[in-house]
Amino acid sequence: MEPKKTLTHDQLKTPRAAAVAGIVFSVLFIISLVLIRSAVPADPLDPGTWLARDLKRVAFAIYLFPFMGIAFLWFIGVLRDRMGAQEDRFFATVFMGSGLLFLALLFVTGAITAGLIMGFRTMPDRLFESGVYAFARAAAYQLVNVYAIKMAAVFMVSASSVAIRIRIFPRWMAMLGYALALLLLLSTGYIFFWAPLVFPLWVLLISVNILLSNLKSVPAPGS
Q1: What's the predicted TM-score (pTM) here?
Q2: What is the pLDDT of residues 147-169, one digit of tens each?
Q3: CA 183, CA 174: separation in Å to the nearest integer?
Q4: What is the pLDDT of residue 121?
Q5: CA proximity to 82, closest of 174, 152, 183, 190
Q6: What pLDDT was estimated at residue 28?
Q7: Of the candidates 173, 172, 223, the residue with the CA atom closest to the CA atom of residue 203
Q8: Long-range pairs, 125-130, Cβ under 8 A, ≥24
Q9: How far apart are the C-alpha atoms of 15 and 210, rounded to whole Å?
Q10: Which residues have C-beta within 8 Å of that of residue 73, sequence separation ≥ 6?
Q11: Which of 66, 71, 86, 215 might form a disulfide with 21, Cβ 3.0–4.6 angstroms?
């Protein structure tokens, strides 16, 4: 009986830890997004004055990206764990692919922005004169607002579709995911400037629901 109890405990503990990781991802993403969007202008053709004014703030936000990515991978893991044997191959493939692409694009954006910051610290004048700033700024803008955010929307649609089929989280959260995904698909850097916030907020909602669900399923001591 003891090995069976240990196995049950491990099965409950891992998803609960992953649900906490989803909350960590949401909090870190919100912090990073607020810091960056409050410092960097929406216009990708800006002259770069934010580098001198808010460099430390943006650098800190970029520093959070790797930890945010690790937490998001754990969040993907807990959703797949809840799918179990009922996992739909089509939606699971889109779900995994969009989630990994979202992270990859986010990391590339972080690397480009970190490169800009390092370049400004070493040779500020040459950075702007060479055209490197204009190219890197435009590339980072496109990666986030056109590609990464759209992949986040696809992730929400695929996860919501799976939830409706096998109920890995409540149906109303899945319907909300569809609506918010549509907002992300239609948004740009100029229109709905703060629209990307809906993704971490939705992940936070799902993670809290999973965490509470797992806490309720924990057996009482001695049972």
Answers
A1: 0.84
A2: 999 999 999 999 998 888 888 88
A3: 14
A4: 87
A5: 174
A6: 96
A7: 173
A8: 127/48, 128/47, 128/48
A9: 8
A10: 103
A11: 71
Distance CA 17, CA 19 (A): 5
Q: Would you kindly state where each structural domain of the chain is located, as residue ranges?
A: 2-217
- Show the 3-state SS of the chain: CHHHHHHHHHHHHHHHHHHHHHHHHHHHHHHHHHHHHHHCCCCCCCCCCHHHHCHHHHHHHHHCHHHHHHHHHHHHHHHHHHHHHHCCHHHHHHHHHHHHHHHHHHHHHHHHHHHHHHHHHHCHHHHHHCCHHHHHHHHHHHHHHHHHHHHHHHHHHHHHHHHHHHCCCCHHHHHHHHHHHHHHHHCCCCCCCCHHHHHHHHHHHHHHHHHHHHHHHCCCCCC
Both tokens of residue 111? 């690397």
46 within 8 A of 137, measured Cβ to Cβ: yes
State the average pLDDT over residues 125-137.
Answer: 84
Residue with tokens 């998803």: 15
